[in-house]
Design goal:
The chain has 10 helices and no strands. It has about 200 residues and is an all-alpha fold. Keywords: DNA-binding, Transcription, Transcription regulation.
């Protein structure tokens, strides 16, 4: 890793709690420089603006998260356990850090404004990875999609849409972890009810 990459990574690590504490709008480059233990001038050598820094942070977080998702889906265990680990990684890295902020909605909106392409590409990759895991499980007769009359890609899209809905429900006081686990239990029931030996 180049020294400049390490420095940028350290800045992005320091910036995350600042954004969580103050929200996007109220966070200043001076706040981030202070948290990173560098001067504003040094910060501007790495990132020309708060928007550029936020986008770089989103790109870094999404790339790291998708590596964790891929590892979870490639691991051992049944498809449901692997999907649960993959969803947990996605939520832990991309949702949970912001969800506790009083400015969570603003931060998620800022992300969709500044890094929509990154976010949508990661979601599309998540759908593709989940679809592949479901298709492999279906080919091994570990699950059945017959009763649902859905393809692995259709179901993967619904899983990701449900995760989005569960994230939005947090604002109304719902519990992210509990609601996700409930959804995944429903998924397991739907896909194994008619499976051989179920």
């Amino acid at each position: 890793m180049k020294d400049s990459d390490h420095k940028a990574g350290a800045i992005l690590e320091a910036a995350l709690p600042v954004f969580v504490r103050h929200g996007f709008r109220k966070t200043s480059m001076a706040d981030i420089a202070r948290a990173a233990g560098i001067s504003r001038a040094a910060l501007y050598l790495s990132f020309g603006s708060k928007e550029e820094l936020f986008r770089a942070g989103s790109e870094r977080a999404h790339a790291k998260t998708m590596r964790s998702v891929e590892a979870a889906l490639a691991g051992d265990g049944d498809v449901f356990g692997r999907i649960e680990l993959a969803i947990a990684a996605f939520q832990r890295d991309l949702i949970v850090p912001f969800a506790g902020s009083a400015d969570a909605a603003e931060l998620f909106d800022a992300n969709m404004t500044l890094a929509k392409d990154i976010t949508l590409a990661a979601r599309a990759r998540l759908v593709a990875l989940l679809a592949r895991a479901l298709a492999d499980a279906q080919a091994r007769n570990a699950i059945t999609l017959d009763a649902l009359k859905a393809s692995p890609t259709d179901l993967a899209g619904i899983i990701v849409a449900a995760m989005e809905g569960i994230k939005e429900a947090q604002a109304a006081g719902q519990n992210l972890l509990e609601d996700t686990q409930l959804f995944l239990r429903l998924l397991r029931l739907a896909l194994t009810r008619s499976s051989p030996g179920a």
